[in-house]
Amino acid sequence: MLEKQLTGQRVDRSICAWFWEHTISQGDFPKLQPVIASPTHYLFQILREGITFLACTQVEMPPLMAIEFLCRVADVLSDYLGGLNEDLIKDNFVIVYELLDEMIDNGFPLTTEPNILREMIAPPNIVNKMLSVVTGNSSNMSDTLPGATSSCIPWRTADPKYANNEVYVDLVEEMDAIVNRDGVLVKCEIYGEVQVNSHLSGVPDLTLSFANPSILDDVRFHPCVRFRPWESQQILSFVPPDGQFKLMSYRVRKLKSSPIYVKPQLTSDAGTCRVSVLVGIRNDPGKTIDSITVQFQLPPCILSADLTSNYGTVNILANKTCSWSIGRIPKDKAPAMSGTLVLETGLERLHVFPTFQVGFRIMGVALSGLQIDKLDLKNLPKPPYKGFRALTRAGEFEVRS
Predict the structure, then answer these.
(1) MHD domain: from which residue to which, for each copy (predicted)?
(2) At what angle do helices 93-103 and 63-81 cross, to 10 degrees?
(3) Lowest mean per-residue pLDDT among 16-25, 73-82, 254-263, 386-395
(4) Which residues pair with 208 in a beta bridge?
(5) Predicted pLDDT of residue 140
């Protein structure tokens, strides 16, 4: 556990013990509420890659500010360390503390832009680790304050220069869907992000417009976006940070179809359960659907399982999770998985039916229907290279049996 006290009033570590006891008592840890009221504190928590980020306060405050800050801390650490896991945190705990020192001041968010933090704190690398061992100096802090901290554009490094100016815009979408046991689509919506990778000299001014912005709900913007052009004309006008960043996020609700279908059938009697699962394309998006997987948790009453498929591979993991990896759907046959589950002694029929988790990926298409109209750039000596891509993958895609 790494602990950082951010205000003058010290919080006793015993609150963490209360949090873990409360977490264990809830049972389903991934679905634990992000805001928890303890007898003495308000707790805010998010879970990323198996690591819990926990903040606590003794006074009331806007919950979304605390949750958003924890998400920003997780994003910055993932960017700095190249991922998030326990070993990376342990090996770079000095950098973690240095980042927290700069990201918050006396309990208030301060510097949260990765570009500015990189100028203040050098990211970990092999050379820095060797120098720290030889010299005994483990600090990566810069001796000078970045120029952008006093600029009106604090998210952008001071006067970057590139021989080849280029900017890439990616639409990355996740489809969340629930299909009931009758095959009816109960819920289907898209959570999407507009991700930009900018390598432009000077201080460019960009304008991004969509062909159909009216379909967007719950939009959230990077601080660089000017709100008035969006409010009046549905146009994104901004001076971009240098490098990769998330320009905006959005939701598209009430979609009426999904690209693939999964049809499970379970029948049980005499102490056994017969399983049959079919997978196919429901609506062809015009691009290849790959990385298709189907997973489900075997009920506790199952003693053994014998499952096979006519395409792909089926694995039963140690925690009783059945994973069927399909990849791409072939043109000559529909993938099918079938087999038998043996119930525990004394149980004639299966009374707890599993929920199937579906995964897939589609390169080159945004299933929400969102389309980029144009991207204009100003304050550049010559026209840069502009690239656009789209990706849709499954989020929480559940099929109930």
Answers:
(1) 164-400
(2) 140
(3) 16-25
(4) 236, 375
(5) 60
